[in-house]
Design brief:
heterodimer, A: mainly alpha, B: mainly alpha, two-stranded antiparallel ribbon, 12 helices, elongated
């Protein structure tokens, strides 16, 4: 199939070249004959060299591991797995390095890092490699999330780490988090075709490969980094407009005492997840939300013992406008104008002062003269 | 305090006595508090700027900044309280306090001094111990100190405040306290800094705040009525 389609491409190319050279009047059948003569040896040689099997170019491995030869040995691989996915052009020994046809039953585990160096480095810094290695001692820990044989690229819908699938993959171990996440606004968005492009998944907040404890400073979910991580979406005006949710969440957080403290590294400062929770993030209108009017006394009260019904009326995440806080607006403009008037007064004062002194000096000179 | 004696002693040195030791100490203490409050306050007001970042680091971090600001605030409250008590109950203090009241005369003198500045008048108006600008400065500083103290106390522990006041109050207080602080730095520091340091007639510094005394020739020029009172010389009148 591949070769045929390549042939058609070449045919179109030749026709274009021929017509470019001014031989467009040549008959079509003559062109086809010439083309066939040129292509025939190429097709024959390529077909012979490629042999009966394509894809993983698995040489002799298939005779035992991919069925049909009469002396099948476990593991039996699905022939489809060898011809699809990101690794379809690799041969078995590219991953199973140094393995010959006659090999012991247990193969050494695959070192994915020999190609995916950066990802492996990050992965080794993170928290996952030890538990995953303990889980499947004979397998590369990468396989726990990415699978093996027929590994799909991340943008493929069937990949276990694709945007729409990765939460299930993580959830196969992190069950409690999965349960909460699928009930959250984020989980809802992921299931909604109109919203899923904006929806975050596990890796959006926790990172990939180099995944740390959420409290570790290097984690994007760490308190110090949450404003940036959550802000990547919640300060995005396009997303706010498309989903009909409030914009500028981080900008309005940054000016509050929580935001300022957070910015200056005060670890006790409330950050996004302290009020909005983490996996089960819900809109304020939702009863179960930690920021619903019914829950706020409790949520604020986690830090502020004096949180009461009046306390929670304080608006947060708002830019002062004449509509929502006229007082702030008036105070601000009063002082800006006051400062302006004083600045003008100050300049006038200096000017008069200097003029007066100059006059005095001149009069003094005249007096002496 | 034997004021006439101090005035006579100063006169022998060719100086006009102006500030009691108590007032000088009050002034220095007030000044230190305002400086610390301004540096810790503006660092928060302009928290986005690099200078603030540096200032906050210098102040030992964000939490320490707040602590220092509150300590200096206590100092300011004490200095204002001391000044109020001094102005009400000490003989010298209450006399000086009354001399800082603004009267119609002050506005007339101010208008005359403007006329003189722009060349519409030959002689500068004869000024008392406190010139118009000094009086205005004094009352503005007092007014701002009180409003800053009141708003500052309400913001001392904002979470307690918001548990019983309407929700718009604290944001308004924050805006008021911040912008008024900025205004104070512009008025009290920059304007005052010009008058007592940068102005060519005082450069590099007027020493009244340290010695409490002013050279007689300067007193004659700027506070002629006070000069005449001290020396007993008879003035030639305003014109």
């Amino acid at each position: 199939m591949e070769l045929q389609s390549e042939g058609l491409g070449s045919f179109a190319e030749i026709r274009r070249l021929v017509s470019d050279a001014g031989v467009g009047r040549m008959s079509k059948s003559l062109l086809r004959v010439i083309f066939a003569l040129i292509c025939a040896p190429v097709v024959i040689i390529a077909t012979v060299a490629a042999g009966p099997s394509q894809g993983m170019q698995s040489g002799g491995c298939n005779s035992c591991h991919a069925g049909g030869s009469g002396h099948e040995v476990a593991p039996q691989l699905n022939p489809d797995d060898l011809t699809r996915g990101a690794h379809s052009t690799l041969s078995c020994t590219d991953c199973h390095e140094g393995v010959s046809l006659a090999h012991a039953p247990d193969l050494p585990s695959v070192d994915c890092g020999s190609c995916h160096e950066e990802n492996a480095k990050g992965f080794l810094r993170g928290v996952h490699w030890q538990p995953l290695q303990a889980l499947n001692p004979g397998l590369s820990p990468c396989t726990a999330c990415h699978g093996y044989h027929g590994i799909e690229p991340v943008d493929s819908l069937t990949s276990p780490v694709s945007h729409l699938k990765v939460y299930e993959t993580c959830g196969s171990c992190h069950e409690n988090e999965l349960k909460l996440f699928i009930r959250s606004s984020h989980g809802d968005a992921l299931k909604d075709e109109a919203k899923q492009g904006f929806a975050p998944t596990c890796v959006t907040c926790h990172g990939e490969h180099a995944i740390f404890e959420a409290t570790a400073p290097a984690s994007p979910a760490a308190p110090g980094r949450q404003p940036k991580t959550c802000g990547a979406c919640h300060d995005n005006p396009e997303m706010a407009a498309a989903l009909g949710i409030a914009p500028d969440r981080m900008k309005t957080y940054g000016g509050t005492i929580h935001g300022l403290r957070n910015r200056f590294g005060v670890t006790t400062a409330a950050t996004c997840s302290d009020c909005h929770s983490n996996h089960l993030i819900l809109p304020q209108s939702h009863q179960e939300s930690t920021v619903s009017m019914a829950s706020l006394v409790r949520t604020c009260g986690r830090c502020h013992q004096n949180a009461n019904e009046n306390f929670i009326k304080t608006k947060i995440h708002t830019e002062a406008t004449p509509e929502n806080n006229l007082g702030v607006f008036i105070a601000r403009w009063f002082y800006i104008i006051f400062i302006g008037v004083l600045a003008i007064g100050f300049i006038t004062h200096i000017t008069f002062d200097l003029i007066e002194m100059r006059r005095r000096r001149r009069e003094g000179k005249h007096g002496r003269a | 305090m034997d004021e006439p004696k101090l005035e006579r002693e100063a006169l022998r040195e060719g100086m006009a006595w102006r500030m009691s030791l108590s007032l000088r100490l009050q002034h220095v203490f007030f000044m230190i508090c305002v400086f610390v409050l301004a540096l810790t306050g503006l660092a928060l007001f302009f928290a986005d700027s690099d200078i603030s970042r540096w200032l906050i680091e210098l102040q030992g971090g964000f939490e320490n900044r707040g602590l220092i600001h509150r300590i200096a605030a206590v100092g300011l409250i004490i200095s204002v309280a001391v000044h109020v008590l001094y102005s009400l109950f000490s003989a010298h203090g209450s006399r000086e306090f009354r001399r800082r009241f603004l009267g119609r005369e002050d506005f007339r003198r101010f208008a005359d001094s403007v006329r003189y500045s722009i060349g519409r008048r030959k002689q500068p108006p004869a000024g008392g111990k406190y010139a118009f600008g000094q009086k205005v400065h004094y009352w503005l500083s007092g007014f701002f100190a009180v409003t800053m103290i009141v708003s500052g106390l309400m913001l001392w522990d904002p979470t307690t405040t918001i548990s019983f006041v309407p929700q718009w109050v604290v944001p308004v207080l924050l805006a008021l306290h911040g912008y008024e602080g900025l205004l104070l730095v512009i008025v009290a520091v920059i304007w005052h800094l010009y008058d007592v340091h940068l102005s060519p007639r005082n450069f590099p510094m007027s020493s009244v705040w340290l010695s409490g005394k002013m050279p007689l020739d300067k007193a004659k020029e700027h506070h002629r009525l006070e000069y005449e009172r001290l020396t007993g010389e008879q003035g030639e009148g305003d014109e």
